[in-house]
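Why do we bother with holo predictions? Because pocket geometry can differ from the apo form. Keep that in mind while you read this record for magnesium ion.
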Amino acid sequence: MKIIMLGAPGAGKGTQAKQIAEKYRIPHISTGDIFRANIKDGTELGKKAKEYMDQGLLVPDELTVALVADRIVEEDCRDGFVLDGFPRTIPQAKALDAALEKMGEKIDFAIDVDVSDESIINRMSGRRACLNCGATYHIVSIPTKEEGICDKCKNPVVLRDDDKPETVQKRLGVYHEQTQPLIEYYSGQGILRSVDGMRNMQDVFEDIVRILGA
Ligand code: AP5
Ligand code: MG
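The structure, written out:
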């Protein structure tokens, strides 16, 4: 099963994608996580990506598309994948369709996690992320067991640089302008499914499972 997660920054794409990956035993591919891992390792790609990410801007398509095109042909993607944070622009969506078509494949579902801008701002300011293992928490809804320490790998959890309030506003603007048009794009292909992302995580996940099938 090949799945795309759509939604504003902080809508819960990552939270849901991790659960989907576990239940359906397919890899979770998050372009944001790949960029953050590259930044942490100080790679050339990481250096370039950081310039854009810290400003709340999208990393250029030419850097992003190649990364995903190379990833989805790997062996573990044979039975499908859940893409989180990609595509984010119409050219990325078209490039993905073209790459899959070459393999005789296509996307099965584009799941849009719908959350109001107001709630997004609340969620992001409370999110804490482990830059070592990628786990995410929220100071109110999913706190770490020990304050400031990742439950899974015991490294510190931090407020992401791009979760500062002024950068979140910028990311939301970029989302409405460049990413929201994908809703219409996938609706036109008949594969768009929307879920109400304002409810608790388990209810959102149950809706997604109803869509994907048990
Ligand atoms: P990326 O890492 O993809 O960030 P994003 O889309 O801005 O989304 P987030 O990861 O911030 O949010 P999420 O929807 O995953 O929410 P989460 O589950 O964490 O990208 C970062 C940057 O990289 C971009 O800005 C861009 O520069 C660059 N980039 C990445 N991909 C790119 C691409 N394709 N092209 C160009 N540039 C690209 O949840 C958020 C918080 O809410 C958490 O604290 C969580 O615990 C909590 N939460 C989740 N669900 C619920 C719920 N139902 N109720 C209450 N709280 C909840
Ligand atoms: Mg995410």
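The chain has a mean pLDDT of 95.
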